[in-house]
Design a protein that fits this description.
The chain is an alpha/beta fold. It is about 35% helix and about 25% strand. Pfam families: DeoRC, HTH_DeoR.
C-alpha cells in the first residue's frame, strides 16, 4: 500500500471510529506499528489529526464550522475591528472580491462612504450591505446557494469567477494553521475559494481569533499564496510569529490602533 493510500485510510478510519490505536491497527492491516506511527506523525504535522500516546484523535473542530447565525455570536468585538482594518486596505478605483461570512459583512459595512471602487462578491449578505453605497459598483456572482456560508457555489459561480481579475481578494476562512494552511469544512467551498484566490493579484485572509491554530478537513491553499492576514489586537503574539517568519504581512487591528 502506497503512503498516500495509507494516509487516506487512516483519516477515513479516524472519521469513522473517532480514534486510532496504532498497535491494534497495525495488527488489523498487517503493517508494522512503526509505519502506522510515522504516518500519524506526518498527518499531525499537516494539521489533519491530533497525535496522542499510542495513536491519534480527531482535531478539535473550529468554532467557525457552526452555521451563520451561530458564527455571528463569536468574537463579537474582533470582527468589526478586523473589518475596519481590511476596509482601510482598499484603494480608490480597485476591483476587490469580498468573500462570504460574518467578518466579510463587517468589512462591507466599514467601506468609506466616499470610496469609489468595484466590489465583486458571491455573498448576498455582502451585496445587501452595499445597496446604499452610492459610489461602489457591486457585481454579484450567482449559483447554488451554500446555506452554511450564504454564498453562491457550483459551476455557474466558478465560470463567472474565472472571467474577473481582482486587485484584492478578502478571504474568509474556517481555519488557519502554519502547517495545515488555509482550510475549510466543505470540499466544494474550498475549490471556489481557491479559484477566487487564483484570479486575484493579492489574497488577504480575515482571521478572527477562533480561527487561528485550527484545521478543517479541506485545504483551500498553502500559506505561500497569502499576501496578508488581518487579526485582532487581542491575539497572542506567539500565534502570529510563525506567519511573520514565513514573510506574510500580519495586520493587527483593534481599538484605535492598527499596525503591521
Amino acid at each position: 500500500m502506497l503512503t498516500r493510500q495509507r494516509k487516506e485510510l487512516l483519516l477515513n478510519l479516524l472519521k469513522q471510529d473517532g480514534q486510532i490505536v496504532a498497535k491494534a491497527l497495525s495488527e488489523q492491516l498487517g503493517l508494522s506499528e512503526d509505519t502506522i506511527r510515522r504516518d500519524l506523525r506526518e498527518l499531525a504535522r499537516e494539521g489533519l489529526l491530533q497525535r496522542v500516546h499510542g495513536g491519534a484523535l480527531p482535531l478539535p473542530p473550529s468554532p467557525a464550522m457552526g452555521n451563520f447565525s451561530q458564527r455571528q455570536q463569536i468574537a463579537g468585538e474582533a470582527k468589526p475591528a478586523i473589518g475596519q482594518a481590511a476596509a482601510a486596505m482598499v484603494e480608490p478605483g480597485q476591483v476587490v472580491f469580498i468573500d462570504g461570512g460574518t467578518t466579510a459583512v463587517q468589512l462591507a459595512r466599514a467601506l468609506p462612504a466616499e470610496l469609489r471602487a468595484t466590489v465583486v462578491t458571491h455573498s448576498p449578505s455582502v451585496a445587501l450591505e452595499l445597496v446604499e453605497h452610492a459610489h461602489i459598483e457591486v457585481i454579484l456572482i450567482g449559483g447554488r446557494l451554500f446555506k452554511h456560508s450564504i454564498v453562491a457555489m457550483g459551476p455557474a459561480a466558478l465560470e463567472a469567477i474565472a472571467q474577473i481579475r481582482t486587485d484584492i481578494y478578502f478571504m474568509g476562512v474556517c481555519s488557519l494553521d502554519p502547517q495545515a494552511g488555509i482550510t475549510t469544512g466543505d470540499y466544494d467551498e474550498a475549490g471556489v475559494k481557491r479559484a477566487i484566490s487564483q484570479a486575484a493579484r493579492r489574497t488577504v485572509v480575515l482571521a478572527s481569533p477562533e480561527k487561528l491554530h485550527t484545521a478543517s478537513p479541506y485545504q483551500i491553499a498553502p500559506l505561500s499564496s497569502v499576501g496578508a492576514i488581518v487579526v485582532h489586537a487581542g491575539v497572542d503574539e506567539a500565534l502570529l510569529a510563525p506567519y511573520r517568519a514565513m514573510g506574510i504581512e500580519v495586520v493587527v487591528a483593534g481599538g484605535n490602533h492598527l499596525k503591521a
